[in-house]
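A reminder from the course coordinator: this example appears on the midterm review sheet, so study it carefully.

Given structure:
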């Protein structure tokens, strides 16, 4: 189904929902006028569910989000937001098998005639989430390590399913990004929950999740909001997608790479960008960031670009998140670095490899959160570790560093 017809169907569905709510407020939830609207709503959903498993509408601030993107603001979306915020509802999820009786229950909950917690016992095709209940089944997530084992398997599957021929499950990934943003808004000190020092058995996908989270953190510290913030988070999640085209043995090789192997690794930005360009619903920022995340601020690094090339800000932010996560989650060579050591090295890289203003914004945000910034000390041990990470003239050229 084309995106425009899907969005049109959703608007029609919401129009009937608010119509049912207005009629139910005037008459009663069982009134024929209400039933008429609900029947039309059910019909819209039937059409929608021929192509999609479920419909998730999230309420974030003054916007309704679908697939992590704000829906066009209309009097209808404003009214529905009002009903949801009155009842403390953070999202509505409709899934296959939706019945009229269940929709009547939904109407009662949205009108405050019964508590929304009762929905779990009354329906199987409608789920409601609280704005204030992070322990909820679809709670917001502040870091990869906060996912349950089952959720981790789900996320892993998303990344496993990505292949040259398969379409990206953009809906799942964008709803994760929306979850991260919601988590940030609710936690006074989100950075403290982020990027805990991890074990050595890290996979590309956990790194991708972290880079997405760190991109959102940077964006919020810069005052970026709305669609742009979502796109920057998504760009972080997908920056390394080109690694699906690199042999797994090369990616996981513990020793030094041969020239040919490194040449393969160096293709992942352009292969990733090409792949994303052919996927429906991918924002351009994600394509840029996949292509440019190993490019340095001084335009060295790879892929090589002509003089005068302007690196996108989202790519520069992704490079910063990528570097930080790589330093914090070292695997084969050494223990992970602590905040002060990682931020010290990043200060050294600011201006040459990393955008200095964005790096300062990133590190200042950490400092405000109580993390110390110290210069990288040039002790023999640190220098050796740094050289192992840098591997060459570009900190991100080492495949295990980004
Ligand atoms: Fe990369
Ligand atoms: Fe990376």
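Designed residues:
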């Amino acid at each position: 189904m084309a995106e425009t017809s899907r969005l049109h169907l959703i608007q029609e569905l919401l129009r009937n929902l608010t119509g049912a709510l207005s009629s139910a407020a005037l008459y009663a939830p069982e009134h024929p006028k209400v039933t008429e609207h609900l029947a039309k709503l059910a019909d819209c959903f039937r059409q929608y569910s021929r192509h999609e498993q479920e419909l998730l509408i999230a309420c974030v601030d003054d916007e309704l989000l679908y697939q992590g993107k704000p829906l066009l603001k209309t009097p209808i979306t404003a009214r529905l937001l009002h009903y949801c915020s009155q009842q403390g509802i953070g999202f509505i999820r409709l899934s296959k098998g939706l019945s009229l009786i269940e929709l009547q229950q939904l109407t009662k909950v949205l009108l405050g005639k019964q508590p929304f917690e009762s929905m779990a016992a009354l329906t199987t095709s409608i789920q409601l989430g609280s704005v204030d209940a992070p322990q909820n089944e679809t709670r917001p997530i502040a870091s990869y390590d906060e996912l349950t084992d089952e959720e981790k398997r789900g996320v892993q599957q998303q990344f496993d399913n990505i292949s040259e021929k398969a379409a990206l499950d953009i809906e799942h990934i964008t709803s994760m990004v929306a979850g991260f943003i919601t988590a940030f808004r609710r936690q006074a000190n989100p950075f403290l929950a982020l990027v805990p020092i991890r074990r050595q058995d890290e996979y590309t996908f956990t790194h991708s999740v972290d880079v997405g989270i760190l991109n959102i953190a940077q964006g919020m510290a810069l005052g970026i909001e709305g669609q742009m913030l979502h796109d920057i988070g998504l760009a972080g999640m997908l920056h390394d997608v080109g690694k699906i085209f690199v042999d797994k043995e090369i990616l996981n090789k513990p020793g030094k790479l041969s020239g040919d192997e490194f040449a393969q690794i160096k293709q992942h930005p352009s292969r990733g960008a090409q792949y994303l360009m052919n996927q429906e619903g991918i924002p351009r920022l994600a394509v840029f960031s996949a292509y440019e995340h190993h490019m340095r601020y001084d335009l060295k690094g790879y892929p090589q670009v002509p003089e005068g090339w302007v690196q996108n800000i989202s790519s520069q932010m992704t490079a910063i998140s990528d570097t930080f996560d790589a330093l914090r989650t070292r695997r084969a060579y050494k223990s992970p670095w602590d905040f002060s050591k990682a931020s010290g090295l990043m200060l050294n890289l600011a201006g040459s490899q990393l955008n200095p203003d964005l790096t300062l914004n990133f590190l200042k945000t950490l400092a405000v959160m109580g993390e110390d910034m110290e210069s990288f000390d040039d002790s023999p041990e640190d220098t050796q570790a740094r050289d192992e990470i840098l591997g060459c003239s570009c900190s991100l050229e080492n495949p295990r560093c980004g």
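Residues 133-142, 188-202, 371-378, 385-401 have pLDDT under 50 and may be disordered. The pocket of fe (ii) ion (ligand 1) is lined by residues 240, 268, 293-294, 402 (CB under 6 Å).
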